[in-house]
């Protein structure tokens, strides 16, 4: 049968969350809710629920490499999201394996600090992330705690966020979205530092809810989804923030588990998008 359509494909390289609120589960839900076809690479197997992580079982580096290769050789994505990378070796494996394939928009959500304030990655891993992964990404989406690690400074105000964002750019990041949800303020302010030297500020009212588990995963995956749908970077960031805000708002009144509950990813799901299939020559013509 002649191929007439193709799905916008988004890939996640991240850890497991059996409680369904964060990690690969949140990524797949977000991709699906926004009309994208989801593929996934598992990097770690945490044992967790809404009350926290009890243990983490490692996935062999070779298995991660083989997952990436087998998927990219068959179902090539239009955008890739990377979640927590907890060892320096894993950073090397991901960067080296992805370098074997054509460039695709790469979104990195640097999960480095738990909500309790505990560091989740060692200094050697952070150093490898800075040296090898950040320069390869098209967008990095740290929260305040993660930005503080990368910028090597305390962040307690909006002015600090501006300084930290500029420091992260100097690490080789192409674009930085610094999320301000952890600041003590009634207003949530996020700053987007683009690759043209401009800083865009986005403000919204903070939603008072305990159901915030997986917010960072959801936002980075939403942006990845819109990039897979050919949105320009700034438009993808704006649309991703809007989706995440609504997912939080529509899940505020739901009790799921005994701890920090998840967002409502399917508050208004889109159908799986079918785009016209273009041959390589037609695609080249379109890109000229």
UniProtKB/TrEMBL annotation:
Leader sequence residues: none
CDD domains: HMPP_kinase (cd01169)
InterPro entries the UniProt entry points to: HMP/HMP-P_kinase_dom, PM/HMP-P_kinase-1, Ribokinase-like
Source taxon at top rank: Bacteria
SUPFAM superfamilies: Ribokinase-like
Segments forming domain Pyridoxamine kinase/Phosphomethylpyrimidine kinase: 17-263
A Pfam family annotated for this UniProt entry: Phos_pyr_kin
EC supergroup of this enzyme: transferase
Keyword tags: Kinase, Transferase
GO molecular function: hydroxymethylpyrimidine kinase activity; phosphomethylpyrimidine kinase activity
Assigned EC number: 2.7.1.49
Pathway: Cofactor biosynthesis; thiamine diphosphate biosynthesis
Name under which the protein is recorded: hydroxymethylpyrimidine kinase
Lineage: Bacteria, Pseudomonadati, Bacteroidota, Sphingobacteriia, Sphingobacteriales
Record gene name: thiD
């Amino acid at each position: 049968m002649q191929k007439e359509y193709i799905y916008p494909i988004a890939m996640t390289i991240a850890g497991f969350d059996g409680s369904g609120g964060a990690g690969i589960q949140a990524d797949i839900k977000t991709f699906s809710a926004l009309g994208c076809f989801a593929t996934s690479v598992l990097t770690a197997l945490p044992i967790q629920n809404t009350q926290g992580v009890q243990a983490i079982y490692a996935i062999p580096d070779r298995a991660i490499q083989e997952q990436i290769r087998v998927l990219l050789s068959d179902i090539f994505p239009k955008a890739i999201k990377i979640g927590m990378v907890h060892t320096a070796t894993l950073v090397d494996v991901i960067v080296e394996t992805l370098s074997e394939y054509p460039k695709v928009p790469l979104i990195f959500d640097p999960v480095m600090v738990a909500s309790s304030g505990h560091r989740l990655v060692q200094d050697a891993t952070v150093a490898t992330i800075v040296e090898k992964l950040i320069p390869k990404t098209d967008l990095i989406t740290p929260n305040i705690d993660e930005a503080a690690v990368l910028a090597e400074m305390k962040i307690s105000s909006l002015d600090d966020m501006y300084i930290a964002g500029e420091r992260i750019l100097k690490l080789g990041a192409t674009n930085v979205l610094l999320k301000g949800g952890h600041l003590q303020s009634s207003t949530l302010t996020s700053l987007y530092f683009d690759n043209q030297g401009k800083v865009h500020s986005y403000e919204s009212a903070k939603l008072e809810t305990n159901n915030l588990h997986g917010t960072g995963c959801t936002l980075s995956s939403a942006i990845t989804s819109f990039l897979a749908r050919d949105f320009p970077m700034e438009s993808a960031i704006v649309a991703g923030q809007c989706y995440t805000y609504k997912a939080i708002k529509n899940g505020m009144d739901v009790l799921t588990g005994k701890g920090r509950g998840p967002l409502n990813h399917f508050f208004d799901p889109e159908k799986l998008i079918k785009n016209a299939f273009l041959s390589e020559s037609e695609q080249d013509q379109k890109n000229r």
